[in-house]
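ugh ok fine here u go
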Amino acid sequence: MRARKRWIIVAMALVLLVCGAFLADHFLKQRHHPGLARFTRQLVTNYPGSFAVEPPLLSITLGEQEMETLRETVEAARERGVILPDGRPYVNGEMEHAGQRSKVRLRIKGKMTDHVKGRKWSFRVVARKDGGFLGMRRFSLQHPGTRNYLVEWLHHRLMAGEGIVALRYGFIRLKLNEEDLGIYAYEEHFGPELLENNGRVVGPLFRFDPGLFWEHRLNEMQGLRFDEPYAAYQAASIDAFGTNDLAKDATARAYFEEAVSLMEAFRRGGLKASQVFEIDLLARRHALIDLMGGHRSMDWSDVKFYYDPVAQRIEPVAYEIFGGERIHTLAGSGRYEGRFRASFDLHDAYFNDDDLFRAYVAHLERVSRPTYLDSALAVLKPALDTAAATVYREFPWKELDVSVLRHNQRIIRRLLDVPKGFHAHLQVIADDTMEVMVVPVEALPIEVHGLRLPDGTLMPPVGHAVVPCRNPGRTGQPRAMRFPIPEGSGLSKDLSLRLEYSVLGASVRRELEIFAHALLEDLPMRSAHLIDAPDMRTHPFVSVDEKAGTIHLRSGSWRLDRDLVIPAGFTVHGTAPMVIDLVAGARIISRSPIALTGLPELPVTIGSSDKSGGGLIVMDAEGTSQWRHVVTTGFGSTLRKGEAGLLFQNSRVLFTECTLQEVPERDLLALVRGSAELKDVLLVGGRDQISIAYANVRMDGVEALGAGDDAMVVRGGHVQVTRSHVEGSAGDGVKVDTHGELRGMDLTILSDGPGMRLAKGALVDLEGLRVETPAVAISLEKMHGRYGPSRVNLRGADLRGGEGEVADAGGNQVRSVPLDAVGQ
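structure:
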């Protein structure tokens, strides 16, 4: 009897266990988890493994009154169902990390109540100016789930790897008033240190103000639905991060005004995306949004921007991807109409620019290859393992599901592999022209490359030939395209004729057969031609060889009163005798490398006879610009502080035996995020003569004479200098800051201002430095809490400063070895 009772108990226990397992499995799958078996493995494997990594600890201490203020904010948000911007005041506190303490201001952050759920509230933290956490003064602390755990971590690493401004993002353990709140995600906020960490010059960070949009969302959450015109993208103002700083800094305010002007011109349809944005970075960002399954992040109210005041272009900033979801379409699908409409939202306006769409599709092809993800995960594996172990300490079931990313790669490849780009109907064959009516069928724009003749010749279309997308639920709108045909070719509707096409920007081309029958022959023909910016061929001294990919600038004397814009994909050559005179604000803007070759007695000369020229810009150029025996005579003053007459950005350039001059009111040469070499180069005049921002530069035999302000400014990057001479600068002879490095030998500085100035973790390592100035020879600003000390290592230096050899404001490192001790 007892045995039977025991068996009944065991059977009941087994039934309960099976039922419990079934219910647990169902519960997990309802929440998009693979199920109980996977959950059990994760718990058994990941949680013990997490103790191999000790998460960084951040402690925040607040007074009781400050804690009460936060509690009131949280309770009000929970009652309302949303966190309003004006209902979350800052409180004062203290932060401690790795033995370092600093004063902070702190408030509740976020919009939705997931940021105040349970005890893991989300915080915005602002440290004192000389303090910070991991190099950040402004950052957020939040439940890792608000950004989908490891998905957001991977998002920022991939974005940074693509050269996009990305936030520092990771995981820590947080204590608040000694209460252990467990694992938190930290996320950088928007400020100068974000730009510095991404190798960007200082410029505005901004967004479309979402305040009115959130009024609309609050109405929705309260069940009130009505027409709210103020909630639209077109109604939003443009809002700068750090607005208070604009009132104090005229230059920052001027840059922000430029950014607003560009963005408004884009939003109103006055300028295309390619005239306003760094479209390659914008294209990369949206290709990664597709890969990461982050289409929910494309709401205009969540998009953030940076304005590069040097390139005068707007860049995207990577911000909350809302990713990790399987995609069914692409970010750019169903948007392209080939024109601008005032009703376009932000992303429709983006994707109606041909150049942006081409770059977007090219990057989709790249990121959808299996090798892209394999390579990225292999490189990131050590850091990813550490981040994952930290998350697993509290959330062992929150693994990074790489299978979702693999799925998205397959979907991208399939969507780009269109079965048929469009329908084509042969309308008319005239003596020298064929007219074809095309009907869209796809959600992606299709570029028609030409008509394939029976003998294999490809005849390009006349004018713009991109077939727009078909609107969902509607038939495609027909439009006419024309193709030139050889006179007397004998083409007729009886022949099998084909068009060659591709998705706009895709590398794979296909062909489709033209239907021999016409489509509604009484339908008025709509031209597919769109008027673009003037072609570079309209300049009489520009000769283009498309097949060879070269552009030749003809010899002679040329006056330009309008911009010469050179696209990517070419190599530009020009030789003496040549004089280029830029007037009326005209510029040369090139995305291809420019090679200019003169002679010692007959250099190539570029300048502005009336000092009204806009200057010369080379950006994002593949290959090296090589200038030999080139003289620039100056382009004239500009209203924009810091704008250089010569700018090379994200490009490589070699100057050999050149003389570069500029007026005192304008910077002479700017080198930004690229590489450069200057050999036997003379710099004369200009405000700042050579500005180097996050670039790698070698200088040998450079003379810099008579700078109106600083002769050489190095911000980030690495500079190697030999046999060079600086003389007569009104400001600093050489200025190095923001972790910039200056190394080399045999540098002479004869300056009216301080000979050399270091700040923000700069490094100077020189042999044979000679400085002579009525001011201090070398000045070091006080060590900054986020950058660490500046360092000076000198061997055989001769420092003659009227106000002293070295002035260290405190906390830096100076080492000088006498001349007779060098080499010992």
